[in-house]
Design brief:
Structural class: alpha+beta
Radius of gyration: 27 Å
Order of helices and strands: EHHHHEHEHHEEHEEEEEEEH
Strand order of the largest sheet: 4-5-6-7-12
Strand content: 5-15%
Shape: elongated
Oligomer: single chain
Length: 419
Amino acid sequence: MGDETHPQAQDIVPLGRVAGYCLAILSFAAAVIHFAVAAGHFQQYWLFSLSMLVIAWLQTIWAVVVIVRPSRPLLRAGAVLNAATLAGYLITRTTGYAIGTAPREAGLSAFGAVFCAAFEAVVVAGCAWLLTARAEHYVRHQQLIAVPAATAAMTAVVLGVALATAVPSAPGASAAAGASAGLGARSAAGSMPGMRMPAAAAESIRLANDTPAGDISMPDASMQMMTGMRMASSAPCTATPTVAQQRAAVGFVDASWAGARKYHSLAAARAAGYRPITPTGADVVHYLNRAYYRAALDGGPVLNTADPQSLVYANTPRGAVLVAAMYITSRGGPTPQPGGCLTQWHVHTNLCLTSVLDVVGAVGPGEAPCPPGSVNRVTPAMIHVWFVPIPGGPTAIDAPDQQVVQAAEQVAAPANGTA
């Protein structure tokens, strides 16, 4: 990839130089995408964000140097850098993240991610070709401008679409009052600004079921997500549930109620292996059965209504009341929706989690960083089935703690101590 001209013609240049300019453009485009997703990856795990920034700067520096001072070692470095980045992308997209948790929707859309990978693949192939070419080829000097210019124009179009379709990063991770209550942390005032739920296509759906929670209905179109929460999928769920999906939603709710009724007794839940993962004594406390969760991680059914991974209790003046079963998927794992848009999954973005998923705090503006031994990361996707009459019914996305406690006070429950 030398920069010497042909001794017999001053109007020609090495093809390798033209190719180097084009590869530099693609490398810079990939760097722009990595810069764009770095902030979103910080919500999943700070190390993800740092790795994106490092890759972006290396790709930017390589793009500049390969134009200013090309060399064979530089080509090898470009091939290794982009090959390693591409391999990391393919591994995380197929087997999940080795550390932290990250839903696939975080960062760019599939379109943008695929084109970023494509840019890197072309850089790898181009560097390999330049390194293995046996003889230098020459082209007219005009092509040193025309070909890179065309490449830049096409890349700019693709890059613009990729960034325009980027999935918004998780909402600002500001902690609500009492955020140390973990998954149940809410402001006493109720809903806080967040992601607005998509408009329901079938507001008239009301499905009777066996729980005391009332009829199953579509998510409220005017509902706002709590700070530190967002839907697990970036695509709005607006399709009207089919008759089969409506029946499946009722079956799912009824089976969850039947499977969890034995845990109305807090002592029975503890005897079965459920342990609190949010601070005890709070208005709402989440319990996790790690054996049941490991079964889901090992490929077992996520929606195991007989043995839900998590139970939710509300502390009322007369003791703890079972208010919900909660199903938690594995990292990047399946999120089945038996009821279609009646059964939607969500994640939390502002929690401080230990390695065993204990919630020990929350982060946000003005809040202290996560305690030692914990990190802020996006939780695995989860879905509730409610057994108390909160607004929205049994498959409501979530509710403020105050509403959950008020609903718990309206249902019969055995005598329990404090959860």
